[in-house]
Specification:
The protein has 377 residues and is of the alpha/beta class. It is built from 13 helices and 16 strands. The chain folds into two domains: 211 residues; 148 residues.
Length: 377
């Protein structure tokens, strides 16, 4: 098995600092104190791959797009592509690790660099392109592979992750990469991040790609969630009953929790996190740091899983970080329609220990009083 590994080092940086994405916002994300998310996600996938498939052949890309992480995981790359040098990415020129573009280590990366790297993988007949990023990265990889049958598989590291070309977790990506025997054509989706920041979600089909067939792949996101009026009324009534008790409610993004916010009497941040305490909004569209600064002695996260995928944490709500989750009780809410579309709930918080602690059976509020048991796997 020959795997080409490419990492988008800035993927997901805008999430925890409240930017809903990183496209065109890298400088602002850094100014807000954002830390890279993708390298750790890549490290987890590569470490797992080295454990289960140490004999795999790996090609990768100069720093900061994968080389160091591949070597640290125990693989000696057979080829290190330098997309910052157009001539080097020509498969006819070949490459050697010792010539691997060290000048690029601190360079700013772009979509074009990703496409160049993937075309180099394609031209050297890799069996799989394993990429680390979000929907934008998936779009670039799919564009570079267009016209070929080389499959692609994503390690999810972006903020949105609407496409169905991603594994459920970094470790699952390694498992799929090491064991798949066939592929199928799947959708690559992305949205306009500027419109997304304004609360408008319009996923667009950006490509069709060959993807390994496996159970541990997520479905495309669904934007409809069914009727939630009675659910919103019931949850909002419970929250109002605690007004004056000093309970801090961290209200997640999405239309289901948005209906609860509207029932409480304020205009929701449709894709942001709002904080409520004692009858008023404390912070609108809060970042991770702002949420942590508002938490008190008793805190409750109210969150709804993503329709079609079942992710409670880790897709579209990175502001709800491990540090935030550990300080809160968690209330999961969803319409019956949404739950009918998922087999199980999932979490992907960037903290495997927390993911394990959250796993198990949970009560999901589905109506004014009704609940349904669902398992987080």
């Amino acid at each position: 098995m020959h795997v080409g590994v490419v990492v988008n080092p800035i993927a997901g940086m805008g999430g925890r600092v409240g930017l809903k994405g990183t496209d065109g916002k890298v400088a602002e994300a850094r100014a807000r104190g954002a830390e890279p998310r993708a390298p750790d996600r890549a490290r987890r996938a590569l470490t797992r791959l080295a454990e289960i498939a140490p004999e795999a052949t790996v090609s990768t890309v100069v720093e900061p797009m994968g080389e160091r992480l591949v070597r640290e995981s125990g693989f000696e790359p057979v080829r290190v592509v330098d997309p910052f040098d157009e001539a080097e990415t020509d498969a006819e020129t070949g490459s050697h690790p010792e010539q691997a573009g060290k000048r690029a280590e601190h360079a700013e990366t772009s979509a074009d660099h990703t496409r160049r790297a993937v075309r180099a993988f394609r031209d050297t007949d890799v069996d799989l392109v394993l990429f680390v990023g979000g929907d934008g990265t998936a779009t670039d990889v799919a564009a570079a592979l267009e016209g070929s049958e080389v499959p692609m598989l994503g390690v999810p590291a972006g903020v949105k992750v609407y496409s169905s070309v991603f594994a459920v977790s970094p470790e699952d990506a390694a498992d799929v990469a090491a064991t798949f025997s066939r592929t199928e054509r799947r959708e690559v989706m992305d949205i306009d991040e500027d419109a997304y920041r304004e609360g408008e979600v319009h996923p667009e089909l950006r490509g069709i790609a060959h993807v390994p067939v496996a159970e541990d792949l997520q479905s495309s996101k669904q934007t409809g969630s069914g009727t939630v009026e009675s659910l919103a009324e019931g949850v909002a009534a419970d929250i109002r009953d605690r007004d004056g008790d000093g309970v801090t409610y961290v209200l997640g993004p999405g239309s289901t929790v948005g209906a609860i916010k509207a029932e409480l009497g304020f205009e929701p941040s449709p894709i942001g996190v709002d904080v409520w305490r004692d009858g008023e909004v404390i912070v609108r569209d809060a970042s991770e740091a702002e949420i942590l600064a508002t938490l008190g002695e008793e805190n409750v996260i109210v969150v709804s899983p993503i329709g079609g995928q079942g992710f409670v944490f880790g897709r579209g709500n990175p502001q709800l970080s491990p540090a935030v989750i550990r300080e809160c009780d968690v209330t999961v809410v969803a319409s019956r329609t949404k739950l009918d579309d998922v087999r199980a709930l999932r979490v992907d918080t960037d903290d495997p220990d927390l993911d394990e602690a959250l796993a198990g059976w949970v009560k999901v509020r589905v109506g004014t009083f009704e609940t349904r048991m669902m398992k987080i796997v």
